Amino acid sequence: MYRILVADDEGIMLEAFKSVIAGAFGEECVVETAKTGRAVTEIAETFHPDVVFMDIHMPGINGIQAMREIRKFNTTALFYVVSAYDKFDYAKEAIDLGVERYLTKPIPRAKIIAAVEEAIGKVDAKRNQRSNLLKIQEKLETVIPVVESSFVGSLLFQQEMQAADYYQQLLDIEDSQGYVMILQFGQSYENGRLVSPIGMNVKAQEFYGEIRDIVKSYFSCAVGSIMSNRIPIVVPCPISAKPYEERIDLVESSRSLISKLEGRIEAKFRIGIGRVREMQEMERSYREALRALNGSKSRVIHIEDLSQNGVYDEEFPVEMEKSIFRYLEEGKEKECVQEMNEFFDWMLAHYAEDMNNIRLKVLEYIIWGEKKAFEAGAVNYGFSYRRDYLDVAMACKNYEELRKWFLDKMVNACRAIRDQKEERSNSVAKKAMLYIQENYSKDISLDDVSGLVNISPYYFSKIFKEETGENFIEYLTKIRIEKAKELLVKPDISIKEAGIRSGYTDPNYFSRIFKKQTDMTPSEYKTRYGE
User: Fold this and answer.
1) How far apart are CA 189 and CA 193, in angstroms?
2) Which of 84, 169, 184, 318 is deepest in the core (most CB within 10 A)?
3) Dist. CA 462–CA 163, nearest whole Å
């Protein structure tokens, strides 16, 4: 049904409109009328018209003023201006209200019907658009929890960080820092610990959706999947200028969250909270949140509220240490060497009199670095591989020998990681290129090819362009157009067939793409170069 409001100071005009619309559209349209600008505004508030036919010249509030008033509470109504010839130019100049059409009096019956049909079509289009948006929103409500879970997993378990960046963009998360909360659930408390009987995890799947909704009503966050009797939550946030005050507020909000959860769900809850860290260090914040839960019997515990075990008791260059291993994991040799030299200089400036202490730190870093390389799949490990490390460290007669050994071992680990990444990238790119060359005539997509090489589309796009100098679409298009050229020169192959065999089922689209790539249409190319 469509609601149509007609405003005109001439009763004959109103009756004519009603009669024509009723005769042409029957009960499909409901028509209300008004003779003044004030009346049409008041009726529009309760009638909520889809379409308004508005005369410009009416007593009191004129048509332009009335439309402006209606627009304040009805942003979707379609306006059709009705005007006599002597007012028409004035109407066109004065109205900036998104008017659909101007109708000049006298209006023949056919023109009224045509205007109503046009309006109905536009109303239908708007309704369909709103319906489609709602359907998309419903789908997003299903997809977003999956994306959030993938985002949390990629951060906490050191999966592809490029994938984490991709998920972060999808979720529109702007902060580059955040912290991890672990929400633990169970059936009851025993000595301050939650008891989670067998089957509690399965039961938790039933109330996971409600838990997620409640948590997100308290925190702007990404909620992970259930892991045993815990749910990891990543809360993006900026670095605070008042960390103590914000920590107090955070603990209080978490207590309120637990009260809300326990009031709605038949379970008991505890929360552990880690420190604010960079996104690529969320794994550390997760471990801190876990340590907070295990190190206290409180229902809400922040890692900063535990005793300060594991904290450096001196001016240790923590950020420098982070940079060394970040560059090592990224395979950035030059940057890694620079940070290692600066760190070695720092050790000399503070502990030059204690060479054994520096030897120990060098050994710690080398073993740590090789472990990172092992975890990246870049090196193998055997129990006896490092049997001489301690002897070599002790045999270094001076700091320059020790520095050289330190740099050599760390650079080897960094190069192994870099080479492994490059080898994988080359392998991925070659495999993808071969697949495209063999399947260009099919309807293949980025998702198809990234799935073939078992890499996320975002990361695949990145490494494919790094290796080939072209993105996926550019490369596919180049292959297809080259094949189309080969086919077009043959006299027994039509332009349409050449398009289909090179992967373009739509002749018009094929023609546009071909011209864009060659500055010639397919027919021009065939005429010029055909056999």
Assistant:
1) 5
2) 184
3) 11
- The count of residues in the chain is 531
Instruction: Let me know if 349 is exposed, middle or buried by CB neighbors in 10 A (0-12, 13-18, 19+).
Output: exposed
Percent of the chain at pLDDT > 70 equals 90
> In angstroms, how far is the first alpha carbon of the chain from the final one?
62
Using the predicted structure, report yes or no on whether residue 466 has a pLDDT greater than 90.
no
What is the rounded distance in angstroms from the CA atom of residue 118 to the CA atom of residue 406? 78
Q: Which residues pair with 3 in a beta bridge?
A: 30
- Token look-up 């004030």 returns 38
Q: Hey, what are 8's tokens?
A: 């005109």
Residues 362, 402: contact at Cβ < 8 Å?
yes
**pLDDT for 198-248, tens place per residue?**
667 777 788 898 999 999 999 999 999 988 889 999 999 988 778 888 888
Per-residue tokens: 94: 């004065």
**Residues forming beta bridges with residue 85, ordered by sequence position:** none
- Both tokens of 412, joined, read 């080897």
Residue 72 identity (one-letter amino acid): K
How do 268-273 and 101-104 pair as beta strands?
unpaired
Instruction: Compute the average pLDDT of residues 123-130.
Output: 86
Note the pLDDT of residue 322: 85
Burial of residue 41, with CB atoms counted within 10 A of its CB: 0-12 exposed, 13-18 middle, 19 or more buried? buried
Pair 173, 284: CB distance under 8 Å = no
Count of alpha carbons within 13 angstroms of residue 144, beta-carbon side: 16
Q: Are 189 and 195 in contact (CB under 8 A)?
A: yes
**CA within 13 Å, CB half, 438:** 7
| Alpha-helical segments (H) within 352-455 | 355-375, 389-395, 399-439, 446-452
SS3 172: coil
Of 50-54, 139-143, 214-218, 331-335, the poorest mean pLDDT is in: 139-143
* pLDDT tens, residue by residue, 148-195: 888 888 888 755 556 777 788 888 888 889 999 999 998 887 766 777
Tokens of 396: 């270094």
Place of tokens 């249409």: 521
What is d(CA 232, CA 223) in angstroms, rounded to the nearest whole number?
7
Determine the number of helices (DSSP H) and then strands (DSSP E) in the chain.
20, 13
Residue 274 dihedral angles phi and psi, to the nearest 5°: -95, 180
Cβ contacts of 203 within 8 Å, gap of 6 or more: none
